[in-house]
Amino acid sequence: MSESVSGGGVPGAGPLGGDSPVLYEVEGCVAHVTLDSPSNRNAISPALIDSLLEAFQAAEENAQVRSVRLSHTGNTFCAGADLKATGTSVEAQRHMGEKMAQLLLAMLEHPKPIVAVVDGHVRAGGMGIIAAADSVFAGPAATFGLSEVRIGVTPALVSAVVLPRMTQRSASRWFIGGETFSAHEALEVGFITEVCSESEGDKSASGVAGQLEQAFAKSAPRAMAESKKLVNAPVVSKLVAERDALVELSCRMFMSEEARAGVQAFQKRQPAPWDVS
């Protein structure tokens, strides 16, 4: 049984809409939530967050669904914030930060396991989405990066979920240096669950995720939900406790002179004014 929604209604939730940047489909006992805005590399906007929240709610309310698979179209899972859609005022930045916090909490507190399947690039805010998933399977094309410092901002809000998912030394390198790192490096520090060597078939990220989804299908729903609470409790507590301060830090950094110069240079594909490499 397959229930597909891109422009129609979602049972138990409102319609995602025909122009939604997210696709939602239920196959068997798995809800497939797909980031589907490859033209802007699945960048995070208020519309993307709202669509993800709606899809996750639909999966929660559907008793048929035992787990959620989060994947993407195109060669980028998520490029981070959509700099054109987030707005330039303090109020707009604060609103975006609050929406992002809402999304991360919704994922962490979702009663069903969320499995991320990544075979593309993950940058900046996209790292927070990956960190809020329960399992992450990466294909051969996957790369990761906390690139915020390259444009004069800080991975503030996502730090609450990313830092608990990697070692302190690796966080120091990648938070401060903004370097890109491979799926194998991400695995070594515990940020992802498994690196899959193939793009298709049983050994692909999608294939291995399917094997885990079969395990979920054999497990009691309430027991899984309570087990997930135990695992995620420290991360949830950290995010709730630090959310307001991190949103304000993010706002200050986005409104700084460095950020203005960095974003402008990024959009013009020019070196940032502080780049002395």
UniProtKB/TrEMBL annotation:
| Keywords, alphabetical | Isomerase, Lyase
Is Ubl conjugation one of the keywords? Answer: no
Q: Which domain of life is it from?
A: Bacteria
Name the Enzyme Commission number(s) assigned to this protein: 4.2.1.17
Molecular-function annotations in GO: enoyl-CoA hydratase activity; isomerase activity
**InterPro entries from the entry?**
ClpP/crotonase-like_dom_sf (IPR029045), Enoyl-CoA_hydra/iso (IPR001753), Enoyl-CoA_hydra_C (IPR014748), Enoyl-CoA_Hydratase/Isomerase (IPR051683)
* Gene3D superfamilies for this protein: 2-enoyl-CoA Hydratase, Chain A, domain 1, Lyase 2-enoyl-coa Hydratase, Chain A, domain 2
**The keyword Isomerase belongs to this UniProt entry's keyword annotation:** yes
Q: Please give the start and end residues of each transmembrane region.
A: none
- Which Pfam family is an annotated match for this chain, by its short name? ECH_1
Fetch the PANTHER family from UniProt.
Answer: ENOYL-COA HYDRATASE, POLYKETIDE BIOSYNTHESIS ENOYL-COA HYDRATASE PKSH-RELATED
Q: Which family does it belong to?
A: Belongs to the enoyl-CoA hydratase/isomerase family.
Name used for this protein in its record: Enoyl-CoA hydratase/isomerase family protein
Supply the source organism for this entry: Brevibacterium mcbrellneri ATCC 49030
